[in-house]
Write a structure and sequence with these properties.
The chain is of the alpha+beta class. The chain has six helices and 15 strands.
Length: 346
Amino acid sequence: MAGTMDFKCPSCGAYLEFDPGKNAFVCGYCGSEFTEAQLQEYSERRQETAEKEKRGGRLKEYHCANCGAEIVTGETTAATRCYFCHNPVVITDRVSAEYAPDGVIPFALTEEEAKELFRNYVKKHWFVDRRFFSEAQMENFSGVYYPYWIGDIAGEGTFDGEGKTVSTVTTGRWLVTTTKYYRLERRGQLIFRNMIRKALTQADRQLSDGIHPYELSEMKKFAAGYLSGFLAEKRDVERSEASDDMMQEVRGYIREMMTRESGLSGVTGTETFTPTETRERYVLLPAWVLTYTHEASGRVFYYMMNGQNGKVCGKLPIHWGKLLAAAFGAGAAVAGLLCAGGALLW
């Protein structure tokens, strides 16, 4: 197979530059170094994998309307940039027909505003590895629209069972406990609104849930123009799967909702929920995302910011040298104070 050299860093995806002094290709973002042989081997492996994925339908080829270059994307990518001319590219067949979103919340924070909020957030954490928020690393700060299902469910809830009340009084030498049993029947119309489920399998739910809630009243009717200049992902979670998950959550609420404020204890019985109306909307919600591959451990750290209100979530990389130095300094200070105190006592 004819090999092609890939001049992007295998660790973080940034562009590599050749350093004559080191006789190696060096990444200015994460500091990784690679020999020509290592890059050749990595490029060949990735090309083999890409060819297999193309045959399996997992990768798709498109062409940039600006320069004509080939763009290869994952099966869920809906908006990206051309790697050659950097022109924004919206893949229309992934945001049309059955995959057309019902709504979108546009980015309210510009890239510079988001970066400033990020820097202020990091400044509060003294022991964060500075490479995580270096100027070179900040060039990887990306605005991404992530897909979600939002559901509304209405229906009738019932509870049939019994409960009891227990009272105790003291009369002379006797302690009298009175237990009364009651039949408990309840009916009610219940409505659950704006239940959210991620619509992308690969998304980290803990991370994506951490930047909620969004102000859904600011939802706009979807138009492809909102995606231009940003990255976007297409859903790969079907409506039925999201709907079933929401319904399961609703059923978990019924007993507590139908028995609350009854004044009874020890309630036993059976609850039911019969949906009368369900509605799911497929929407895109904005987030600013930054990833960092730790040079020593190879561990990938993710940081995510709500693109509407700036709420953040993520685990930041610790600079252990700083942490150990601070701990050593604090220990030395305490030891010095103890020695000084001992000298005064003697």
